[in-house]
Design a protein that fits this description.
The protein is an alpha+beta fold. It is about 20% helix and about 35% strand. Strands 1-2-3-4-5-7-6 form a seven-stranded mixed beta sheet, with helices on both faces.
């Protein structure tokens, strides 16, 4: 696997991969697919030197997925904490890439002055919870029934790891 900084021309692929998770109601609280234009500001908030957005590729430059670091809560005192988001291409899920991507991010985060990683995961998303706990993330918070997806209340767990 190779990690490279996302460039503007990657945004459509990022959105396509993200949108592939909307319908399953396991990964995102968005209930309808997003447009590329609606993600431009989010894309622009990333920076290669502080909060990277990486494309993940195999050795043949096929897209495996993408991963991003986002600032937590937007206040300077929290600069050492980042939220991590990992999204894999539908054809690449279930192959162990998620664990490899998360491990790479844990290994690399200190170079960006990140000491704490957070994952916000729906409590019913067992595969993602298992992925993070397998790499020793712990439950740092539980937001009970804060989302409604198709009329069903859903909880969010905040999993954290001190690096």
């Amino acid at each position: 696997m190779k990690f490279r900084d996302a460039i503007q021309s990657d945004l459509a692929t990022i959105v396509e991969i993200y949108n592939s998770t909307v319908e399953c109601r396991m990964v995102t609280a968005d209930t309808t697919p997003l447009s590329v234009e609606s993600r431009q500001e989010w894309f622009d908030e990333h920076s290669a030197d502080k909060r990277p957005l990486w494309m993940v590729e195999d050795d043949n430059k096929n897209i495996i997925g993408w991963v991003s670091f986002q600032s937590f809560y937007g206040r300077p005192a929290y600069d050492a904490t980042a939220e991590i988001s990992i999204y894999l291409h539908p054809l690449q899920r279930g192959k162990g890439y998620g664990k490899a991507v998360l491990q790479y991010c844990m290994d690399t985060a200190p170079a960006y002055n990140i000491k704490n990683l957070l994952g916000y995961i729906f409590a019913h998303n067992i595969p993602s919870l298992q992925l993070f706990t397998a790499l020793e993330f712990e439950e740092w918070g539980h937001l009970k029934n804060i989302a409604i997806l198709d009329g069903i209340e859903r909880s969010v767990k905040i999993l954290g790891k001190r690096l």
